[in-house]
## 1
Amino acid sequence: MKKYLDKSLSAQERAEALVSEMTVNEMAGQLRYDAPAIERLGIPSYNWWNEGLHGLARSGVATMFPQAIGLAATFDTELIKSVGDITSTECRAKYNEYQAYGDTDIYKGLTIWAPNINIFRDPRWGRGHETYGEDPYLTTECGKAYVKGLQGDSETLKTAACAKHMAVHSGPESLRHEFDAIASDKDIEETYFPAFEALIKDAKVESVMGAYNRVNGQAACANDLFMSKLNEWGFDGYFVSDCWAVRDFHEHHGLTGCPTESVALALKSGCDVNCGCTYQHILSALEMGLISEEDIRRACVHAMRTRIRLGMFDDSTEFDSIPYEVVACKEHKAVSLKAAEASMVLLENNGVLPLNKDVKTIAVIGPNANSRVALEGNYNGTADRYNTFLTGLQDKFEGRVIFAEGCHLYKDRCSGLAQANDRIAEAVAAAKHADVSILCLGLDATIEGEEGDTGNEFSSGDKNDLRLPASQRLLLKEVKAVGKPVIVVCAAGSSINIESDVDALIHAWYPGAEGGLALANIVLGNVSPSGKLPVTFYADTDKLPDFTDYSMKGRTYRYTTDNILYPFGYGLSYAKTQYSNLSYADNTASVTVTNTSNVDTEEVVQLYIKDYCEDAVPNYSLCGFKRISVKAGESMDVTIAMNPNAFTSVNDKGVRAVRGSKYTLYCGSHQPDELSTKLSGTECVSIEINL
C-alpha cells in the first residue's frame, strides 16, 4: 500500500508522503484552483472553487436559504448550523453523482468558499449582505455555527469551509483591486480579527481566503501580520487567494513588477492555492531563483492535506451513501422556510398586522412582488420552485389578491416603448380596489452586490445612498395617496430608509426560495415576527464617515449615537415580553422572560455589556444572545453563556486585556438605548458587576 493511502497515519504524514512522489512540475500544478490530474499517482483533476454561502451555489438545483445577512437576523446559531449541515449534505450528494460521471468542473468540489465573515462596516458596501452584520461577536458565533455545519463532526471532513476575506475588507467595490485599507491596531484586534481567530481556534475552519485590497500597505494575500496571526492561532488548513487577487499585486497595487514576482511574494508569504492564473508562472519564478522547491512543496502539502481530510484518497467515506434524493427535499425546504420566517424584521406596525379577518381583498404591488431575484441574494443556487411574495400570499390568503407591478426596480418605465411611469396607474387602481396594499419594494443582487456581478447605474454594486430608487419612491407616494392602509415589504441586503410613514414595515432581506410563504405566514398571523437587525439602519449616508475610512469611529452601534433610523438588535413582535431577575455568575447570565401577551412567539434574548474603562468602546457591546420559544402567558428562566472576551478591552496598541473593574450588564429583546426602548415600548433590565 502506498503510504499516502494508509488511513492509520495523520493527514499531515499522508500529504507529505503523497507530495514526495510528485515532480516539481506536478506540485506546482496542484496549487492552481483548477488543479490537473496526475494519472500516474491516481490523482484526479480537482477544481477548488465551490460556493455555498446560503445553500449550495452555482451548481444547479439546491435548497436556497435566506442570504447570510438574513441568517444573522435570526440570531439562531443552531439554525445556522443546520443550514450549513444541509448545504454540505447536498454538496456531498451532488459530488457523489458528479464523480460517477467523471465531472470535476468548477463548483462541483468539496471545498466551499464560505462563510464571509467580514464586518459590515458601511451600509453602502454592496457585498455586505454576504456577511453576518456589523458586530464582531454575532459574526463570530454565526460563522462558527456555519463552519461546524459545513465540516461536520466526523474524522473525515464533510466539506471544507473557508473563512473569508481576511481580514480588513468591506469596500468600496470599485476600488478593491488597488485600495489600501488603513486600520489601527485597536480596530484590527477589536473588530476585524475576532471572527477569524474564533473560526480557526474554535471551529477549526479548514481554509482562509485573503482579500483583494492592501491592508496598511501590504497585500491582504501576502500580509505579514495576517500570516503571523494564522500561525499564532494554530491554523493548519490551506490559504487561498481571492480570485485573481495575486494578479493585482503587479497590475494595480504596484507591489511587484511582474507575475513571477507576484508568485514569489504570495507563495513565500503563505498563500498556498491561487484562485486565478498567476501561479501558472510558478516554474518561471523557480527558474529565476525567486522561490525554492521547498516553498512549492510546503504549499502543496497543505493543499493535499485538505483533500486527504475530505477522504478523496480513501476507498470509501461515510458520505458516499448520501443519496441524490436529499437535494431540495421536503425536509430541507422546511428548514429554509423556518429560517426565512425567523429572519424577517418587523420595523413598524401601527396595529395593521397581523391582518384581521375583515380584510377580504389585498393588493400586492411592486417590482419585488413577483421577483425570483429578490429572493436569491448572490452566491446562490437555483431553487426547483420559487415562492415569491406574490405567490406566497396567493397560496395562503383566503380572499382576493390583486397584483400590479407598479414600476421597474430602478428604471423609470417597465416597457421600453412606453412613457415614464407606465405602471403607476395600474398600481393605483389595484390599491383603490383593495382593503390594504402590500407594497414589495427594495433592491436585489443585480444592483447591490459584488463588482462585476452587477449591471446598473450604481457604483460597481455599492450603494450611493440608502434611499429607494426613484421609480419606487414615486410608486410609494402614489399608493399612499389612495388613503388605504399600506404595508411595505422591503427586500434588500442592508439598510434602507423608505422616507415615508407607513402602517407597517417589514425588512425581508433576500429570504430564499420559501420567502413568499414566510411573508404570508407573518402577515396573516400564523407566525409572530422575531428577526432582529444585525446592522444599524442609518438615516442618511451624508452623515456617515467617508466610505474609504476604515476607522470604527462613527460606525456601528458600539461607536455611534446619532443618525440612527433603526438600531442594531431591534425588531418588533406580535407578542409582548417582560424581563426580570437578571443575575450573573461564572461568565453566564440568567434571566426570567415572561410573555405577557396572548400570542406565542420566538424571542431573541440579548445581553449587552458596558465597560467603563478608558479603552472600552464608547457605548456597549453584544456579549450574549439566545433564541427561545415562549408561549402566550408563559414565564421561563433562560441562561446564556457570555462572550469569553466580554470583560476585556483593547488599547491603542492592539492589546486585549481585562482592564475595567466596574461593568453594567443589560438584558432584553433589544439594545439598552433610548431609541430601541421608544420604538419597542419595552425596557431592558440591568445589574452592576464588579470584578
Note: Residues 332-535 form a domain with the Rossmann fold fold (CATH 3.40.50.1700).
## 2
Amino acid sequence: MTSVPTRIPSRRRAPLSAVSRERLERALVGVVLVVASGALLATAPVNGDFWWSDAPRHALNGAFVKDFVAAMPWHDPKGWAVDYYLKYPALTILFYPPLFYFVEAVAFALLGVSHFVAQATVSLFVLLLAIAAYAFVRLDFPRWSALGASLLVVGGPEAAFWGRQVMLDVPAYAMLVTGAYFYARSFRRERPRELYSALVAVLAAIYIKLTAAFIVPVLAAHFVACKRGETFRNRHVVAAAILGIIGMLPAIVLTIKFGAINVQSVAGRADDLPRTSLAAWLFYVEAIPGYLGYVGTVLAACGLGLVLWRRPAPLDPRLAWLLVGWLAFGYLFFSLIAVREARHGMMLAFPLTVFAVVAVHRVLRFPAASIAVVGLGAVTFLYSLAFCPPPRIEGYAEIADYVAQHAPKDGVVLFSGYRDGNFVFDLRTHQERRDISTIRADKLLLRIAVERERGVGEARLDEHQIAQALRDYGVALVVMQPGFWTDLREMARLEAVLHSPDFVRVAHFDITGTIGHSDHEIDIYKPTYPPVPARRRLRLDMPIIGQRFTGELGKP
C-alpha cells in the first residue's frame, strides 16, 4: 500500500494588510524623528560649556521656577525672588515670557538641575517641531514627502544649530508650527476642539518668545478672508478670539513692565542697520540658505512662484495662501525689528520648506518626488549635524567645581568676567553647595543696563572703598577674568585691589573653546585675612527695568 505524501504548507508570508502597513510606516516615521532629535542632543554642548551668553540664563531661569515652587514663598514672593537674584545674579526670567522655564522646571524636578537636562528640554521641542512639521505637510502630501520636509525643518543649518543651544527660538518655533497644524485641521473640518487647540498652541509660542505673535494677524486675516460672513456667526470662533485677547494681556503687561530690553531691540541702537537701507531689507533674504541650504532655497523660490501663479497642487490653495501670508507678513515683521539675527527669522523657514516640497512634486511624479524630498531632508540634516556644530566654551564647570570645594560654608564669591551666566549656572548645579552666594563685580561697581553698549554708570569708589566693600560682604573667593573691562576706572581699581597684599592668587584656569572668544583665562583669589561678613544686605540698581533691588545675601 503506497502512502500519500503529506503536503508541506507554504512558508510564504501573507502580504501585509493596509492597516498593518499604515502602522508600520507610522512607526518608522516616529523612529526616524526620535533618532533625529536624539542625534542633535547627542552632539550638543551639555557639560556647562555654554557658548551663547543667554543660554545659561535660560537654564538658570528654569532652576528659579523649580526652586520657587519647592519653597512656596507665598508670604513674600517678590522678596524671595529678589534674594534669589542676589544669590544667583544671572536671572533674566522677567525679561522673557516664562512658559519654557516652567517646562524646564518640571524636567529639573524629575532629573536634577544640569546643563544636560536643560538641553534635553530643548530637544523635546525639537521633536515636537519635527512631528508638527510632518503632520502639517502630511495633510496634502505623501507620507515620505512629509518626513523629508520634517527633516528639512529641524535639520536646516540654523534650526540644527540653535536646537543644540538652551535658547527659546526652536521651542517657540515648535509651538507655532503646532498651532498652524491645528488651525489647518480646524479650518478644514470645522471642529471646535482643534480651533481651541490651535489657540492654546499659538499662545504657548508667544509665552515662550514674544515675536511668535506675528502669526496672530496672519491667521485672523486668513480666516476672515476664507470664511467671510461666517466668521462672526460662529460662536466658537468668537469665543476663541475673546480668549485669545484675554490670553495676550499678561504678555503685554510683562512687556510693558519688564521688557524694556525687548522694546529697545525693536527700536534699535546706533550701530544697527538703518531701516531705510537696502541691506536691512535684504538681511533675511540672505539668511534663507542658512534655513534650507542652497538646494532647498532654489526649490522654495520655485515653489513660491508656482503658488503665486496659482499652481500649488497638491497643496490646498487655501493653505497655500496662508503660507504666503505667513512668509510675507513675517518677513515685514522681522525686518522692522532693528536687532537682526538670522535666528530671529527662523520661523520664516516653514512656509519656504512647504514651497520647496510643492516644487519637487510639480517636477517629479510619485514616488520619485517623495524619494527626492526625503533625500533633500536627510542630506541637509546630516550636513548640519556634521558641519554646523554649536560652539563650546569650556572651563567654567571646572571653576564652579573648584569654588564648590573650597568656599567656606555660607561663603560669598565675587565674580568679575564676561561669562557670569556660565559660572552662576554651573555653580547652581552643585546642589550640595546651595549656601554659596555670588556677587557680580559689574553690578557692585557699575550701573549697567545688560550690556555696555546701552550705557554704563560708575559707582565712584576708590581702591580703599572697594577693598572695604569686599571685607564688609565677607568675600571669601574672587573669580576674575584678567583685564575684564579694566578700561573702566572702578574695574581697574578692583584688579589693583586683588594684586595688593590683601589677596593671593590660589588657582588659575584656562578657558578653551571651539570658536574665538575674549575670555582666555580665569584667576581665583582669596583674601589673606579671615573673611567675616559685617553686612549681608545688598542693594543693586536694575536700570533696564528702572528698579533697585535690596535683599539679603545667603537667602533663599
Note: The chain has two domains: 21-54+92-387, 393-552.
